[in-house]
Amino acid sequence: MHKLVVLYPPPVDPDHFRDYYVNNHLPLIASWPGLLAWRYSFDVAALEGEAPYFAIFEGDFADAAAMAAARATEHGQRVAADAANYATGGAVVLHYPVRDTID
Questions:
Q1: How many domains are contained in the chain?
Q2: Per the confidence metrics, is the pTM higher than 0.85?
C-alpha cells in the first residue's frame, strides 16, 4: 500500500476551510479513481505544545504507481487545483510506502 498525506497549516478563515472542504473538496476526493480508502480530521493535536496543522488528509493507493497515475488523471489534477479554493495556509503533501510488519 502507498499513502498520500496532506497536512494543512492554519488557514486565514477556518470556517470557510471546513465548509468548502466538506461540501466541495471531499466529494471530489470520493470519486477519485484509484483511491482505495481515505480519511480526514480537523481535530489535529500535538502531544506537547500547539499543533502546527489545522487539518490532515490520508489517502490509500495500491502502490506508488497507482498514486502517480491517479494524480496524473484529469480528475486528479482537479483535486490538486481545488486546494487553492480553501487552503489559504498552504499544504504539505507527503507520500510513502506503508510497511505492515516490522522487518
A1: 1
A2: yes
> Tens digit of pLDDT for each residue in 33-91?
999 999 999 999 999 999 999 999 999 999 999 999 999 999 999 999 999 999 999 99
Please report the sign of the dihedral spanned by the C-alpha atoms of residue 26, residue 72, residue 90, residue 99.
positive
Rounded to whole angstroms, what are the CA distances from 81 to 25, 44, 46, 47, 88? 10, 24, 29, 32, 13
Residue 79 lies in a domain: yes
Cα–Cα dist 45/12, whole Å? 19
pLDDT at 46: 94
Neighbours of 100 (CB within 10 A): 5
Segments forming the whole domain that contains residue 76: 11-50+70-89
Amino acid identity for residue 42 in this structure: F
User: Contact at 8 Å (CB) between 84 and 77?
Assistant: no
CA distance from start to end of the chain: 16
List strand residue ranges (DSSP E) for 14-91, in order. Answer: 37-41, 55-61
